[in-house]
Structure of ExeA family protein:
Amino acid sequence: MSQDMYAGFFGLARRPFTLVPDPEFLFWSAQHRRAFAVLEFGVLSRAPITLITGDVGAGKTTLLHALMGRLTGELRVGMVSNAQGDRGELLQWSMNALGMEIDRNETYVQMFRRLQDMLVADYAAGRRVVLIFDEAQNLSKKGLEELRMLTNINSNKDELLQLILVGQPELREVVLSPDMQQMAQRVAASFHLERLDAEATTQFIGHRLRTAGGTGAEISEAATGLVHEATDGIPRLINQLCDLCMLYAWSDGLKVVDEDVVLRVIEDGVFFGGGTLERKRA
């Protein structure tokens, strides 16, 4: 069976609601534009640390991929997803992301010195280094403190390494805790992504449908209202529910997803977050 499944039935070039982060499908809501502007500002202004937080599925990783697509060759960029471990392992994650070879026999001091030498060499060549940590809420306070120490590597008055930390809301809470003041003081740019409101949810759905080659009317406006209610405006859940709704409509030969289709998907229990709407209406 084709992975596009129902797409041809609706006249679409591909499924519009897949869960794989895809910058082409990025919906530029007002807050996503602001978040992206903060990311770009952080890079261009040489901010030691840029912090972006938001709920699971808010579109943070997709924003990162969009940012990386715009960065120039004047930057060496490394991205680490879901790093964990002690300080030696965290340093190895960082070095690996920046394209450096790992020598398991090296001591921590030797690894740190080699990283420092690379940063100095890049600085001399006019290249800045940006290290991105996605899912950074999984880092311990000790891990975050180690990353802060990396931003202390400098030449004259210029930082040689910039950090972008992206994670769930608890990351922001940790950074703002009293014993992390030194970390917080290094955060020069930050933004928190809120959930989409009802209007933005409708726009989000229409955008993805049109990007996939549709008209945007394949899901009715009344249906998008139910989708927002059921998902609380979390983009990843919106994608999950809409994908299932279009699957249901296709199997029933319906060209438009209406309220009845959304309710059937939720009542059948195939949408994991479906209990949200049922609880609200109970």
Observations:
- DSSP finds twelve helices and seven strands in the chain.
- The longest strand covers residues 75-81.
- The CA atoms of residues 80 and 133 lie 5 Å apart.
